[in-house]
């Protein structure tokens, strides 16, 4: 075949990438959260003092899958742009960004390290900003799809910071453990 691909063939090629990237990112993101005990069922998280701007748990359950779909579509567009200048850099940055994205739940929820998790989010924000600049040159829509993710990361970073400030000993907080204080009326 020596001819130029038709619009239908190009669309099908993009869909083949998207059929891999979207479910793959959704699955990895869901596994990252589930295996780290993310969410309302986490006793450590429930014991933390939270800021007044903290949305209810269902918001996170709604937002993250939508963001994963947008990330998957953006990645599919970059993968589909064969021969595009800086495509390799964009793919490497996508890999780093996804690694950081999937690392945040274990760092925060399993390791109980909101301080380190805040550093991970800072890396995610910087990586997303750089990725927007790179993908914008490859496919404008691929860059546009990353804006909601960047906005959510900045909000999540604020939440993470507020939790860190309100819970200075969060790494050592063990909910449900009895204290060593002896009540005065017991003596």
Task: Walk me through this protein's architecture.
This protein has 187 residues and is mainly alpha-helical. It has one domain (8-174): Ferritin (Up-down Bundle). It is built from 7 helices and no strands. It has helices at 7-35, 43-47, 57-80, 87-110, 114-138, 140-144, 147-166. Helix 1 packs parallel to helix 4.
List keywords for this structure.
187 residues, 7 helices, mainly alpha, Ferritin, 71% helix
Computed CA radius of gyration, to the nearest angstrom: 21 Å
Low-confidence stretches: 177-182
**Would you give the CATH topology?**
Ferritin
Strand-pairing-aware structural class: mainly alpha
Helix content: over 70%
CATH superfamily: TspO/MBR protein
- Average pLDDT reading: 90
CATH architecture assignment name: Up-down Bundle
Topology:
Elements: H1 7-35, H2 43-47, H3 57-80, H4 87-110, H5 114-138, H6 140-144, H7 147-166
Helix pairs in contact: 1-3, 1-4, 4-5, 5-7
In short:
This protein has helices at 7-35, 43-47, 57-80, 87-110, 114-138, 140-144, 147-166.
């Amino acid at each position: 075949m020596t001819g130029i691909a038709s619009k239908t063939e190009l669309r099908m090629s993009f869909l083949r990438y998207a059929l891999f990237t979207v479910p793959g990112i959704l699955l990895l993101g869901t596994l990252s959260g589930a295996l780290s005990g993310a969410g309302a069922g986490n006793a450590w998280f429930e014991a933390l003092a939270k800021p007044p701007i903290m949305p209810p748990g269902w918001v996170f359950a709604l937002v993250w899958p939508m963001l994963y779909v947008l990330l998957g579509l953006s990645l599919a567009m970059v993968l589909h742009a064969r021969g595009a200048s800086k495509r390799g850099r964009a793919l490497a940055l996508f890999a780093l960004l996804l690694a950081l994205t999937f690392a945040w739940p274990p760092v925060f929820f399993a390791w109980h390290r909101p301080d380190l998790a805040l550093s991970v989010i800072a890396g995610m924000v910087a990586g997303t900003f750089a990725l927007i600049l790179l993908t914008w040159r490859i496919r404008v829509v691929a860059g546009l799809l990353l804006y909601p993710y960047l906005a959510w990361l900045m909000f999540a970073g604020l939440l993470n910071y507020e939790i860190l400030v309100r819970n200075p000993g969060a790494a050592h907080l063990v909910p449900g453990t009895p204290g060593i204080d002896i009540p005065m009326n017991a003596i």
